[in-house]
């Protein structure tokens, strides 16, 4: 592979006698990774149903290598059920090493297409809030899809310049991830076009943007909160020097140690900042990942070891909510909600035009921000009826809705459902002569109304049942090509 001369010279300087090992690894194959979405399934349960041979990624509890030359996990129904996300292994590290706890308020500043945001959401669970932002509105659309596919409901998907967010979210977040736009030197083996992009916009160009983003994020972090800064590049100007610029401007920050791994290399110290060695470099010749840089930082004087829990902090700081609730829940919505077994707080229901949302608690007023989604879209009120959304189907667990069509992954109707076809499901309905469901949930399916279509117990989407026929309500934009 032909690398730019200036890049090679820099890497020689950075790596010294390891340079040849680094160059040699360009002849090796890239690594493919699959991360189990623990919001939907435990690693143990996934391993029981996984159809492929996977090898654990040693520093990521829910990460696995797969053979990308022989299998295509994105074309399996479990992918459509949001059970995993496909991600380069070293890119799994930032969200893994940011210690997000359930119920926190978390911001992913540069989130599209959502590789890290989906993992932050899994760690958060169903409460708290994940604000996922990306300056590019077209990329933010892909981000929204990936978050919805992963079953994330307590979310905001924003598309703003981070400086604009400060006045809305000053000292609001417990944890912030900045996976900064960068020159992408760690992507050269995976995507050859990155070499050309590097020649057009290199480290100098990106370092200015990164310094500005990290300073803006610092203002949105609560005292005691943590930032994880990451890039997929090797240049010091985009890595250690971005951290130095933060520490100069905001001396209340300190660098924290993160959980180690034998392949991690320390960051490069400069002058009196010996603590930069606590930051982490991932090189492809030292471990099985393409390359990354990570720095974990804490704001305030409590020190990295302070153990005050998020709940203790929340008791001290409460922010009024902005959902306001509905004055009266429309009958058709109430009827639909009667089929759900999960507890919903009515004060968090919000109606915008005909769309009904379930909002995260304690949000500030978002008027004036460009957003693609606030909260979980439950569905739409149409004339005298309520139509549940694809996002709600993905959010639910099978046992949280009382009318389920559970198909086995072996059932050819799963693929046909994902392509948008109408299905004959009379064998699974309660008035049929063959009453037993093949891979059934053990429950009888009623004959009429909205059904949650599942594969092996994991929701895929909605269908509307009448006389043994399932009218397909899988979101048209998500349908598989024939
Ligand atoms: C490295 S990618 C993020 C990848 C993402 N975190 C993931 O894991 O899927 C960087 C992203 O930053 C966005 N970006 C660029 N400049 C930005 C800015 N000033 N503020 C917010 N996002 C920005 C880009 O559109 C791009 O999607």
UniProtKB/TrEMBL annotation:
Keywords: Cytoplasm, Methyltransferase, RNA-binding, S-adenosyl-L-methionine, Transferase
CDD domains: AdoMet_MTases, RsmF_methylt_CTD1
Domain annotation SAM-dependent MTase RsmB/NOP-type: ranges: 22-300
UniProt-annotated binding residues for S-adenosyl-L-methionine: 110-116, 134, 179
Any one Gene Ontology molecular-function term assigned to this protein's record: RNA methyltransferase activity
Active site annotation, chain numbering: 232 (nucleophile)
GO terms for biological process, alphabetical: RNA methylation
Highest taxon listed in the record's lineage: Bacteria
Family per record: Belongs to the class I-like SAM-binding methyltransferase superfamily. RsmB/NOP family.
Identification of the protein by name: Methylase
């Amino acid at each position: 592979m032909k690398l730019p001369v200036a890049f090679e010279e820099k890497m020689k300087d950075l790596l010294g006698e390891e340079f040849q090992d680094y160059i040699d690894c360009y002849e090796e194959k890239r690594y493919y990774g699959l991360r189990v979405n623990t919001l939907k399934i435990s690693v143990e349960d996934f391993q029981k149903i996984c159809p492929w041979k996977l090898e654990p990624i040693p520093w990521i509890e829910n990460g696995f290598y797969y053979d990308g030359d022989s299998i295509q996990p994105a074309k399996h129904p479990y992918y459509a059920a949001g059970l995993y996300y496909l991600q380069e292994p070293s890119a799994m590290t930032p969200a893994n090493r940011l210690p997000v706890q359930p119920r926190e308020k978390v911001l992913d500043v540069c989130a599209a297409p959502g590789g890290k945001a989906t993992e932050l959401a899994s760690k958060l669970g169903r409460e708290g809030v994940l604000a996922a932002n990306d300056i590019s509105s077209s990329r933010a659309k892909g981000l929204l899809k990936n978050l919805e596919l992963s079953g994330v409901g307590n979310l905001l998907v924003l598309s703003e310049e981070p400086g604009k967010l400060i006045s809305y979210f000053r000292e609001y977040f417990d944890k912030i991830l900045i996976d900064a736009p960068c020159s992408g030197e760690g992507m050269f083996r995976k995507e050859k076009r990155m070499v050309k992009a590097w020649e057009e916009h290199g480290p100098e160009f990106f370092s200015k943007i990164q310094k500005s983003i990290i300073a803006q994020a610092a203002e949105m972090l609560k005292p005691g909160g943590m930032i994880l800064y990451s890039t997929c590049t090797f240049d010091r100007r985009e890595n250690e020097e971005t951290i130095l610029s933060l520490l100069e401007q905001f001396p209340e920050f300190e660098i924290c140690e993160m959980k180690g791994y034998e392949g991690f290399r320390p960051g490069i110290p400069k002058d009196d900042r010996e603590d930069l060695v606590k930051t982490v470099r991932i090189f492809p010749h030292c471990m099985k990942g393409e390359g990354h840089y990570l720095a974990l930082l804490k704001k305030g004087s409590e020190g990295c070891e302070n153990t005050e829990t998020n709940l203790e902090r929340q008791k001290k700081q409460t922010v009024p909510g902005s959902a306001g609730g509905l004055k009266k829940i429309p009958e058709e919505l109430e009827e639909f909600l009667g089929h759900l077994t999960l507890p919903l707080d009515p004060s968090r229901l919000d109606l915008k035009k005909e769309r009904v949302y379930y909002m995260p608690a304690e949000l500030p007023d978002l008027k004036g921000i460009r957003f693609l989604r606030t909260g979980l879209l439950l569905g739409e009120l149409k004339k005298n009826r309520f139509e549940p959304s694809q996002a709600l189907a993905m959010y639910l667990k099978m046992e949280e809705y009382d009318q389920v069509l559970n198909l086995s992954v072996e059932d050819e109707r799963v693929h046909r459902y994902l392509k948008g076809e109408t299905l004959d499901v009379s064998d699974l309905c309660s008035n049929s002569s063959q009453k037993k469901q093949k891979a059934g949930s053990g429950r009888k399916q009623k004959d009429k109304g909205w059904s949650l279509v599942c594969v092996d117990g994991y929701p895929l989407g909605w269908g509307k049942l009448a006389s043994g026929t399932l009218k397909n309500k899988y979101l048209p934009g998500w349908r598989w090509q024939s």
